[in-house]
Design a protein that fits this description.
Rossmann fold; binds thiamine diphosphate; 3 domains; 6-stranded mixed sheet; 5-stranded mixed sheet; single chain; alpha/beta
Length: about 525
């Protein structure tokens, strides 16, 4: 019997993947998913089994590398935050069309309440859209076990499995009892190599096969869903993923209402219909968007009363928690009060001594002479430059959008158009936009604020470190318009002059302010 461990949900998934015999984890950092890969990296570094665990350049490269592992019969884990699914979507959706060889599990960590994200999108829609099985654990122990099971299922049905978690599952700890660990699969080649060539002739056949598989997946959900009968049938509760935890915390012991725990999709339609037939109404407790609640409208007779986030019984936005679930269950509010009144909010800010600050101070000075200027920015620590007192940037949409938006605005006649992007975001998805700008000779000034790390998510390696000038030159930026400066208060005059010169140049210029992130520097000194 293995020792029990106190693990984050992320770590439980990581351990499950290690014990399932993965050959590699492929990921780009993003809260709340980052700790999955970091745990595997730590285990490998401390002498565990060899597992490929280097950070990828973005979520799409991660998904595709994992698909390559699966093609040759071995197991791979892919991890990302929910918005990473948008980047990986092309590969993800088509991986359901090719099918998989070795087990392939994709973890998408959703962030309801947008603690560190631009939106609240719910990754379950991606799983449904791609017609793949979705797992949604309700506890850390389940996260461990379901990961192992997801790899087995993936190989059994020949499809990737999407594991969907939300912030609380990822970042809260509980005891996990690990099971047995297995080794890697042997190398093996695809049974039907044509499946992997998505020419229309093969794709049409594969799509039919994918659709034909759906009743089998639905049947599996019927067999595994856990239904607990309760004496009071005035209401039935459908509790998904971590929502089940919140329900059980409020209804300890034997729940008085019937409870159906949903931890995998497609939905167990027959089970749901049977439950609706014996309950006065149904309450859907699901974190994220009303994914189940919406589907129930098509599954159940229209007379059936379904309540949840759409009906207003639970809040439409933000995370679920034991308190708002408690109210939806018709119970009196918990006595501990509203924590938001007890904990003083601390808005995020750039660290003192951060190089991004010096970049923005110089930029703000220079742009006083250009009242029509706009600074398109991106996602990273430097996004905090939008806040007072700096107020230095005008946009933050999705990773890589700074350069392309500056190009578009310049095409439309804006001058000067500037872009500010971090080093990791630049390699993630800024390079192709820079190529577009070079190809159309757009008069834009791109600032790649290089702190030599992916700071926002905790200081992971940045894919282009040491190669940014070469990348820009390779993309076609003229060498004399690739300028490197050191963002320190003592260099202000030089930075301002460089900015003025490159704004005056009517072509693509890149300025790279380079100074190591003070947080990673501090950690190195320690
Ligand atoms: C598609 C997507 N993937 C991941 C993230 C999470 N994320 C936000 S910023 C960032 C990288 C920031 O690194 P960098 O551009 O170097 O800027 P820094 O934070 O170091 O200033 C990451 C990984 C995200 N928001 N969107």
């Amino acid at each position: 019997m293995n020792d029990k461990l106190l693990l984050l949900g992320d770590q439980a998934i990581a351990l499950g993947a290690i014990d399932a015999g993965i050959t590699g984890v492929y990921a780009y950092p993003g809260t709340p998913s980052t700790e999955i890969t970091e745990y595997i990296q730590e285990r490998v570094a401390s002498g565990g089994r060899t597992i490929h665990c280097r950070w990828c350049t973005n979520e799409k490269t991660a998904m595709e590398a994992a698909l390559g592992v699966s093609y040759v019969g071995r197991r791979a884990l892919v991890c990302m935050k929910h918005v990473g699914m948008n980047v990986a979507a092309d590969a993800f959706v088509n991986s359901a069309m090719t099918g998989v060889g070795g087990g392939l599990v994709v973890v998408a960590a959703d962030d309801p309440s947008m603690h560190s994200s631009q939106n609240e999108q719910d990754s379950r829609f991606y799983g449904k859209f791609a017609f793949v099985p979705i797992f949604e654990p309700s506890s850390q122990q389940e996260a461990y076990q379901m990961t192992v099971e997801a790899f087995d299922l993936s190989e059994r049905v020949g499809l990737p499995v999407l594991m969907r978690i939300t912030t609380r599952m990822a970042h809260s700890r509980a005891i996990v009892a690990p099971g047995v660990s297995r080794g890697e699969n042997a190398l093996s080649m695809p049974r039907n190599p044509a499946d992997w060539v998505l020419l229309p002739v093969n794709a049409r056949r594969r799509y039919r096969e994918l659709l034909d598989l759906q009743p089998r997946l639905e049947q599996m959900s019927e067999e595994t869903s856990v239904y607990t009968g309760g004496p009071d049938h005035s209401m039935g509760i459908i509790a998904c993923g971590i929502g089940y935890n919140y329900v059980m915390e409020n209804l300890p012991g034997e729940p008085i209402y019937p409870v159906l725990k949903i931890d995998r999709y497609p939905l167990p339609v027959e089970r749901l219909r049977a439950m609706a037939a014996e309950c006065g109404s149904l309450l859907v407790v699901e974190d994220g968007q009303p994914f189940v609640e919406e589907q129930l409208r098509g599954i159940l007779p229209s007379a059936c009363r379904v309540e949840g986030r759409l009906s207003g019984r639970l809040p439409r936005v933000g995370e679920l928690n034991p308190d708002n679930v408690r109210l939806a269950l018709g119970l009196a509010p918990a006595e501990c009060g509203d924590v938001s009144e007890l904990v003083a909010p601390r808005p995020p800010a750039l660290c003192n001594g951060c190089g991004h600050r010096d970049v923005y101070n110089a930029m703000n000075e220079v742009l006083k002479d250009f009242p029509a200027s706009k600074v398109f920015s991106d996602i990273g620590c430097y996004t905090l430059g939008a806040l007072p007192p700096l107020r230095a940037i005008d946009s933050c949409v999705d990773m890589g959008a700074s350069i392309t938006m500056a190009k578009g605005a310049s095409d439309a006649g804006l001058f000067p158009a500037l872009a500010v992007i971090g080093d990791s975001t630049f390699t993630h998805s800024g390079i192709t936009g820079l190529l577009d700008a070079v190809n159309s000779r757009s008069p834009i000034t791109v600032v790649i604020s290089d702190n030599l790390t992916t700071a926002m998510t905790g200081g992971q390696d940045s894919a282009g470190t040491g190669r940014l000038e070469a990348i820009c030159q390779g993309v076609g930026v003229e060498p004399e318009h690739i300028r490197v400066v050191v963002p320190l208060p003592k260099n202000m005059e030089q930075i301002r002059t460089t900015l003025r010169e490159e704004i005056a140049y009517r072509g693509v210029s890149v300025i790279i302010p380079r100074r190591e992130c003070i947080q990673t520097l501090k950690r190195k000194h320690k």
